[in-house]
Write a structure and sequence with these properties.
Elements lengths: L3 H14 L1 H6 L1 H4 L1 H11 L6 E5 L5 H7 L4 E6 L2 H14 L4 E5 L12 E7 L8 H10 L1 E14 L3 H14 L7 E2 H9 L3 E14 H7 L4 H17 L7 E3 L2 E15 L2
Parallel strand pairs: 1-2, 1-4, 2-3, 4-5, 5-6
Antiparallel strand pairs: 5-9, 7-9, 8-9
Helix pairs in contact: 4-5, 8-11
EC number: 2.1.-.-
Organism: Halobacterium sp. NMX12-1
GO biological process, one term: methylation
Length: about 260
Amino acid sequence: MPDPSEHKQTVRRAFTEQATAYAAKTSVSDPKRIARLVDAAGVTSTDSVLEVATGPGHVAFGFADHCEGVVGVDLTRAPLQIARETQRERETGNVDFVRGDAEDLPFPPDAFDVVVCRLALHHVERPRRMVREMARVCRPNGTVAIGDLVVSEHSGRAEYQNTFERLRDPSHVRALPISELIDVVTGRGVEIDHLETGEVVQNVEDWLATAETPEPRAVDVREMLREDAEADLSGTRPFWRDGELFFSQQTAIVAGRLLE
């Protein structure tokens, strides 16, 4: 098994290089998408919230409007710097950002009422360990909520998508099918009371540019998507519009109560 520390270096490098482009990406910053996670978590005005893998902090700020306080934690300095700059501009007083590892969170047990993560689980090599940590720092009867990319329930089709996702961005490890995502969450003692699905339509060239994918790998990604458009190999349904190639990433939000 690869050394997890090596992959974390890959994640740091990727999100240092693409920090600004990623923060500006509409699918990441879209308030309506963030609101769906806030609603799924059922957050109240007295709740303390932890966002794991906060990146540029969009989700943390979305929660800050509805709760007592939010802490955003991330492995990489560059997106945290963007989050802190935004905090200063907005003068948001109930948000704090700290650096830390999602697989070894720097907080004591039962420290938060709500623990959330969005668009990050597919970047970790040990998703069960990450969710275990999320559950550890959540109080009993608190809420754990995860929003992420999901792939086909059929292993060959799932691997086809994960392969071109990794070619585009080596920090991508593996998006899970919904059934496995549910199993990972319930395995940590969460009773799911909310499940919803959605999709993000990606312009392939913009998507490649955000990750600064080297051209030789970008060529391979484009070819895989063209083949997918012809033969339906992954479920991402690539298509052309006005001469440009697009495809659809499926997403899911899973949320529930942490049992005592």
